[in-house]
Structure formats: C-alpha cells, structure tokens
Amino acid sequence: HILRTVTNEEIRFAHTLDAALERLETVLEELRRAGEQQILGEVAFDLHATYGLPLEITRDVAQEQGFGVDEEGFRVARARHAAASGSGAFDRYLTAAGVYDRLLADLTEGGKLPPAGVDYDPYSAPTMKSRVVAILKDGKPVTRAEAGDRVEVVATATPFYVEAGGEISDIGLILMEETGGELVVGDVRQPAPGLIVHDGQVQDGSIEIGVEAELLVNQPRRWDIRRNHTATHILHRELRRHLGDHVVQKGSLVAPDRLRFDFSHGEALDDETLAEIERDVNEAILSNQAVSVRFMGQREAIENGAMALFGEKYGDVVRTIRIGDPENPYSFELCGGLHVNETGEIGLFRFTNEEAVGAGLRRVEAVTGRWAQRHVAERLALLKRLARSLNTPVDDLPERVETLLAENRSLQKVVEQLQRDQARDQFEFLLQRVQQVDGVKLLAEQVDVAGADELREMADWFRNKVSSGVAVFATVQEGKPLLVATVTEDVIGRGVKAGDLVRAVAKIVGGGGGGRPNLAQAGGRDASKLSEALEAVPELVKSSLK
Question: How many CB atoms are located within 10 Å of the residue 146 CB?
Fold first, then answer.
C-alpha cells in the first residue's frame, strides 16, 4: 500500500512538472525576447500557486539558461496571497466569537444557564420543553423578536443535534404558546463551548426572553439522517473487508438526502467491486441487526476493538455504537451521532458516485431509505423512457444501444473521410496562393475545417508538398479563432520558428500559444481580427529571416 501510494504520487508530480516546465519555458522565452534577465517575484509565485512548480526548480532552470529569480518578490507575493486568503475571514471569526463568549458569560454569571451551559440532549426525544434565555438579532442581544425577524435563539435546553462528525444539524420549530410565537429553525450551531444557538426566522407571533417554549425537531428529516449515519458504519466495515485494513475513514457527510464517505485507498473501485460492496451492505441491512449505544471509558473501548477516527478528540468517557451481537459485533465504533435502532430501518442502500479526492484518497456517495427508493424509481422510469424512444423492450436495450453505437461509429468514419476529402480539396486549391517572402514560400490562409486536427493535417500536407517554406492555417471553432503554423527545417535555420510565429499572430486575435520550431498551435478570442492577423504573417516572417 505504501509503495503504491508513493508511486502514484510520483507519477502525478511528474505530470504536474511537465506542464509547469512548459509554462516556465514560455516565460523565459518572453524574457529573452524582451531582453530581460530576471523572473519577477509575482510570476515565480504564479508558477508555484497555479502550476505547482516549486521555487527551487524555477530557480535552477532559470540559472541554467542565464536568468535570475526575484526571490524576495516571490516571498512578498506569497505573503500577500496568504493575507488575502485567510486573515480577513479569521478577523471576522474572532469578532463573532467574542460576541458569543460574552453572551455565554452573561448567561452563566446571571444564573440563566448552569456553568456547563445549555443542556444538550439530542438522544432522548425529538421534542422538549425549555425556556428562551437569549435572542440575538444582527449579532446584538434583544429581548423580543417579531414575525419576519432573522434571529439566533438560546434556550436552557435543546433536543436539536448540532453538526459534528460529519452529521449535519437538525432543523425544526420553536413554539411559544404564550406569545403565539413560531420560529422556523434552519440551523443549529455551537459557536462557543456550552452555548447552542438556534438560527432561524420568526414565522408568526413573537419570540421573547423568559417565556417557556416547545422545541420540535423535524422528525422525518432526522430519520433520514439516522439511516444515512448507520449506513456509513456498515459501509466502513464492508470497505475494510473488501479492500483491506488500510481503509480508514478520512471524512464524511451525513445529510438527509445522501451520505458521503472519504477513505484511504490508492485505486479507483471498479463497477464489479462497487456492486459487491453494495450487495453486502444491503445484506447487513436486511439481516436487521440491533444497533446499541453504550457509554464506556475511552481506553476500555479502544482495547475492546472500537474504531476511532484518527485526529478526532475524545473525552475519558466515550459513546460507542455497536451493530449486531454485543459480544461479537458486526461493527463497533466511537460515535456521537444519531442512529437507527435496527439496521432494517435503513431500508435500501445504493451507491451514486465514486471518485478520487486526493492522493491515496477516494470518495463514495450513496443514498438510503426513501431517497434510495426515489433513486431506483427514477432510474427505472429513465429505462422505460429510453425503451419507448428506441421502440424496444427494456430487456433488449443493451443490444439495441450497441447496434446504434456501431451504426454511429460507421457513419462517423464516413463523415470524417468526407471532411478530410473536403480539407484536401481546399488545400490543393490554396497551393495556388503560395507567395514568396525573401525567397521563402509562404501560405497564410483561413480554411473551413472542423478543428485543430484538420489544421495540423494541412500542415503535414504542406511540408510534404512544399520542401521549403512556411504556412499558417486558421479556422474559427465555436466562435473562437484557432491557428496552426508550420516551418520546414531549412527555414528554421534561417531564424523562423513556428512557436514564435504563431504566438505573434495570436496576439492580434487576443490570444496566445506556442509549440515546437517546426509545428505550433495557438488560439484567440476575437475572430473578427483573423483576416488582419493572417495579413501580418508575411511581415512577421520577413522580420525573422536572417
């Protein structure tokens, strides 16, 4: 696993380095033409930030070709970037944190909250009677909020789950019978240890400090979250069983409509492997194993085989989730989230996506319960629509699609040959327009072809047909100009290089490009100036000839 991970990282860095060095060569060529000897700090930092090229490599390559690097300017650019990326947000965070710290201190010192803060109990029941002790509007404490106000409400106790461990927060309602108040809670946060705020909008009546309230969690949504959370534990177990013990959870999202699970693994999961894992997850669900919660000492839990997430902080007493036989559990993990009572309550599990999210890191996404049923129903409806469109039974769709694809490939080959024949006819006609520039044959024309491949093929035809010369072919693709230049070896020896030529022509159409001395490509933004750009080619060639 280590060897595979290191090797994959080396291959990825090699690809990054190739692209970055190509960009660096372009920078050095531009400096060379401008007669400058140093890479600006901003440019060196752009090579680092955008292309992943370390400063040390930029410096070494530049020195080999007689150039220097403004390293102090690089450090200034890096510091400026860091400040723009982070400090403003951090300053705002500190300001907000100060508001909540002061609020919590006032509530505890005033006896409205115990020293431990809000009584947080999302596990017992989805409803609870409590008392509102603080209201924040626009970040400032108020005693009352009216219909339409966006506020944050603090109560002495709450059954609302606060986002943690990948599981998102509950939503719901806070009702005040005395004032007719109704707060629609859209988020719940813990901005300071011991302080939980319910963020929402007053729908009816008023919300007032000191008044008793009923807090109601959105139950159907919470059950969707429970299903997805227990499913992540089953998924984790099956990933390790199928792929190996190197698989470790690296992050997750548990939402009502989907789950996302990141884990350590260096290779993509093929369709067959995903299908096997999905089958076994559903087998675990259908076996309807009990899900039990137990609080125990952290050391005892780990010694008994409980899975703990690396980097997570746990107290001396931890909450554990067991699936299956308590003595020989199917799954045993430290977890503070909400779960179903039995795996059968999950209903159905379906993968929806698998992808890479970093070096040695994979991500799968899935749906369960009602959302899995909806997913399957949508796919079945799609199959029926396709079958109707192709006038074939659903069971015969694979063969019908294969037949259509084969027919399409055959027709595509015919189209490509026709386009090639048309391009060849254009080329033969354009040969009549070859001109002479200081003894060099030159052809610079706009053609009607499909794209860059056809332009490069015309360049090949030119080199085969004209033993000595220069050609620039251009076309417009999706409203944007595209150019290809070619120069024969003898003319290269006289100072004309395709990369320099096409780059200069592309500037006229608001673009850029480059390539090898004998073949280069460029693009632009302004197709209206393409004729002007092609008319400039003879003079550009003439000025380059030695």
Answer: 13
Q: Give the Å distances, CA to CA, from 179 to 144, 148, 202, 206, 499.
A: 11, 15, 12, 6, 77
Residue 517 is classified by DSSP as S
Cβ-count burial 81-90 (b if 16+ within 10 Å, e if not): eeeeeeeeee
Q: Which residues, at least 6 apart from 135, have a Cβ–Cβ distance to it below 8 Å? A: 141, 142, 143, 144, 145, 151, 152, 153, 154, 207, 208, 209
Tokens 């700090």 locate to 41
Helix %, strand %, coil % of the chain (to 5)? 45, 30, 25
pLDDT for 85-128, tens place per residue?
655 555 555 556 678 989 999 999 999 999 999 999 999 999 99
Which residues are 486's β-sheet partners? Answer: 471, 519
Task: Give the H/E segment covering residue 63.
Answer: helix 55-64
Q: Can you give 392-457 as a three-state secondary structure string?
A: CCHHHHHHHHHHHHHHHHHHHHHHHHHHHHHHHHHHHHHHHHCEEECCEEEEEEECCCCCHHHHHH
Integer CA distances (angstroms), 317 to 75, 124, 300, 336, in order: 47, 19, 9, 11
Nearest Cα residue to 156 out of 187, 113, 196, 215: 113
Burial class of residue 115 (count of CB atoms within 10 Å of its CB; 0-12, 13-18, 19+): exposed
**Assessment of whether the complete model's pTM goes beyond 0.85:** no
Structure confidence by residue, pLDDT tens digits, 136-145: 999 899 999 9
Cβ neighbours of 11 (radius 10 Å): 10
